[in-house]
Amino acid sequence: xxxxxxxxxxxxxxxVREALIAAEITRITVSRVAGHGRQESTDIYRGQVVxxxxxxxxxxxxxxxxxxxxxxxxxxxxxxxxxxxxxxxxGKIFITPLEECIRIRTGERGGEAI
Length: 114
Description:
Number of domains: 1
Number of strands: 6
Structural class: alpha+beta
Oligomer: single chain
Radius of gyration: 17 Å
CATH topology: Alpha-Beta Plaits
Shape: elongated
Number of helices: 2
Order of helices and strands: EHEEEEHE
Largest sheet: 4 strands, antiparallel
Strand order of the largest sheet: 2-5-1-6
């Protein structure tokens, strides 16, 4: 089992969600987050250029069995990227081992609980 965490631009959330549903990945968790990597945005405030420290993003977390890792990652990559080449700020995907998953309602564990 793996936990896939994707940090994407807010405007791409609907596209990514639709791509995941098309790939039959329907169980996701979405959170609003803020941060920055190489991407910098500038605003004009009272006539001066201001570079804010944190940029609004969306974090998607998906627990998957090993056979769904590539399917999930491919769906996110294709839908979150701007064009063929992409652009700075498109986001990142992190894949981490998921030690255990337990469904609270039934007590199921492991891959069955996902």
